[in-house]
Write a structure and sequence with these properties.
Helices cover 33% and strands 25% of the residues. The protein is built from nine helices and 14 strands.
Length: 263
């Protein structure tokens, strides 16, 4: 099984999973990159996963339907282009033999979901060689999504759930926001050695045109301030801006508000 990031728009990624014959795509905001990849690799489109309703994640679905030999799967609590199969917390989706669990992660939108694959059946083996997470706009490398429809408490809980996944999990976010996120992360934790090393590595990758993604859950735990609200240094920086931020969820709120205006 191969996992590919298809660039779309200015900074989106449409994730494609294929086995050499058939493919599923995640959050096809536009159809052209998917159609080009299908044509160049001679693949059939077997299915579409959707994490949330924003146009840059669903805008290409209808244009892809003539090539679709399967289903569109999306969050039950969001308005997704019909027809689609609604899924909820704890449901499972078979993607070319890989079993993905649906995890509800409200915050960016009210009904946002993520899809997590850990193993095939009970064997403990993965066709990807590692666990895989499609997290849409909830978790980014070095950052997280804006709170368009949810609350800080919801997003904090959603991120905590994702942070508890196995450390080797590949984090397949939907945007190439890593460098800007790391600029903010360094403002929060300028002496974090893992963060400094990661920033250097990501700058080198982007300088050669390579994506920074997928990331890993264990890496995000080490560098992402939104997963580190319990860390004393992160909490202290939040309290510099709001002395009332004594609990982790309040630290998260302050960081998210700071990031909203950070340049």
């Amino acid at each position: 099984m191969e996992l590919i990031a298809l660039p779309a728009f200015a900074d989106n990624y449409i994730w494609m999973v294929h086995d050499g014959q058939a493919a599923w795509v995640v959050d096809p905001g536009e159809a052209a990159p998917v159609q080009q990849a299908l044509d160049s690799m001679g693949l059939d489109l077997a299915g579409i996963l959707v994490t949330h309703h924003h146009g840059d994640h669903v805008g290409g679905i209808d244009a892809l339907r003539p090539r679709l030999h399967g289903r569109v799967v999306g969050p039950a609590r969001e308005v997704i282009p019909q027809p689609f199969e609604p899924v909820r917390e704890g449901d499972h989706v078979d993607v070319l033999g890989a079993r993905f669990e649906v995890i509800e992660v409200p915050g960016h939108t009210a009904g946002h979901v993520a899809y997590f694959h850990e193993c095939v059946g009970g064997s403990g083996m993965s066709p990807f060689g590692r666990p895989v997470l499609f997290c849409g706009d909830t978790l980014f490398s070095g950052g997280c999504g804006r709170l368009f429809e949810g609350t800080p408490a919801q997003m904090h809980r959603s991120l905590a759930r994702l942070a508890d996944l196995p450390g080797e999990t590949a984090v397949c976010c939907a945007h190439e926001y890593t460098l800007s996120n790391l600029r903010f992360a360094l403002a929060v934790e300028p002496r974090n050695p893992e963060l400094l090393d990661y920033d250097t590595d990501c700058r080198a990758r982007r300088a050669t045109g390579l994506p920074t993604l997928p990331s890993r859950i264990d890496l995000e735990r080490a560098v992402n301030p939104f997963l580190r609200c319990h860390e004393p240094a992160v909490a202290a920086r939040a309290r510099d801006r709001d002395p009332t931020a004594t609990e982790a969820v309040e630290v998260f709120r302050v960081l998210r508000e700071w990031k909203n205006e950070f340049r």
